[in-house]
Amino acid sequence: MGWIIHTLCFHPLSGYPGPKLAAITPLVHLMWDIQGKQHSTMKRLHDQYGDVVRIAPNALVYRAAPAWKDIYGHRKKGQKVFVKDPALYAPTPNGVNAIITANEDNHSRMRRLLTHAFSNKALREQEEILQMYANMFMEKLKGLMGSAASQTIDITCWFNFTTFDLIGDLAFGEPFGCLSNSTYHWWVRIILDAVKASAYLKVFWYYPFLVPLVRVLVPKHLLQKRQASFNLSVEKVRRRLALGATRPDFTSYILKHSKDGKGMSPEEMDANSAVFVLAGSETTAALLSGVTYYLLRYRDKYTRLVREIRGAFDKDTDIKLSTLGDLPYLNAVLTEAMRIYPPIPSMLPRIVPEGGAMINEQYVPGKVITTCRCVLLAEKYSSMNLF
After folding, report:
1. What is the mean pLDDT of residues 155-181?
2. Distances from the Cα of 16 to the Cα of 51, 133, 328, 363, angstroms
3. pTM of the prediction?
């Protein structure tokens, strides 16, 4: 009872609006996440309470544009960094941090290595691989459609088949065979369940005394799939490392630039492998699905985009990465889709540094967990829509 009175009346965040039960225990917020209702619940709460809402005893969520820069923006000299909330960014099954869970120094080291893999030079070297899967994707769709213009196709599945195969090739040197087999590889199916397991595991950060009960509180099949997903990642990394820096993919650039003890250990590459696959596949497919939906919904935008692309290229083989950057409307469409249909609707919490900080022109004490939701920003500022 004393804790309830303190958190509702005397806690530094007691003046912020939000559900009373959520202000008492983090379990409320964790249940929204486990149930897959976090995104819709956040929208409802912001509609009810405004731009900032208290969603846990020590957590605030914002939908104000200035808050995004305050929380995630680059720090000026002398300003302290908002570090990642360890409750969300748990280590991988081998206990080693990947790039999204690493501390600032290790994150910078890993990011420098991966920067080479995403440079213009690297993209040009990888273009043949990109073209191969794009062509295979188009041929598969043509085969499905045949002469029936009214044929129904689940385009999201086919985007996923393409992006998983592509990222599998770039990360491991081998595709998952989704396109060639016209179905999901078993590993692709379980990786999303592995992500779901991580939502349950957050409970143990807040209540470590429950760790002995992990096999009781977390569905057994989710734990098994999480481990199976990681095991296959390790197996694929080992096969790719055996090839050395012989082909233009992520691994080759990591190996080429791993000097002076600043590279990645095999264990770090294991930890990062699943991150590469998920970050470069399902998210890309989700965005492309959103682009397709909005273009078909707003036919005038679709017509304008088609006119720009077909006016720039005489045939498919003329389409190159170097020339796509010169199509202003295509890039405007993709940028707008990222704003109104972001592929990651979940929250990316950060901890306010010691001494506190100004967020959305209001002082917030140190050690408070904060996040800003780009989905909600898109909804709030929808008057700027291209579509």
Report:
1. 92
2. 11, 50, 43, 12
3. 0.80
